[in-house]
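Interim report to the steering committee. The following record documents the input for Methyltransferase (190 residues).
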Amino acid sequence: MLNTLLTELERKGEQNDRQQSSKEQRYLNITRDTGEFLRVLVKATGARRVLEVGTSNGYSALWLASSLPPGGQLTTIELLPAKAEEAQRHFERAGLAGCITLLQGEAGALLAALPAGFDLIFLDADRARYVAMLDELLRLLRPGGLLVCDNAVSHRQELEAFVAALNARDGLSLSLVPVGKGELLVHKGE
Ligand SMILES: C[S@@+](CC[C@H](N)C(=O)[O-])C[C@H]1O[C@@H](n2cnc3c(N)ncnc32)[C@H](O)[C@@H]1O
């Protein structure tokens, strides 16, 4: 059931993104191997509270939510109402709506209203805003938690200022993993 939906979204994403020139109309999903990598990270870290910034049509959220232990919860944020509605339909179809809270709106504003204590945060939205979001992201991530940032190889230059800001902070450990479009792992020290 879940795998059928994931495969369907992979085909749809590939076809749609080839045809659409506007960024807003594209899904820009993570690759399947990134989904598998996120699954390993959620399971291996025992993450129970996961936050995603940049839902699109819900493809990566399906990987994250389906990897949670019983009682685990994913909060995911999407700016565009049409994409948020489409994602919600996919969560319901996968039987995962009960463990996903989808917030529609601008991440910068929504992050400030969330309580801290996330075990894992997956960042896959507007890269130009990551530096401005950094304080909030680090407040939300629990000590010992993991921040994962997509596109760290595919858009390395766009992320330079963000990586420099991370490197300037005490207590963070960084590692770039060449899976999919490149996943930057950031561990927040205890
Ligand atoms: C790369 S796509 C996310 C793909 C998704 N993680 C997946 O793999 O299925 C980025 C998404 O972030 C959303 N986005 C961009 N800026 C945002 C912001 N400031 N707040 C919330 N969402 C934002 C876009 O509308 C877009 O749907």
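The mean pLDDT is 98. The committee is asked to note this result when reviewing the revised timeline.
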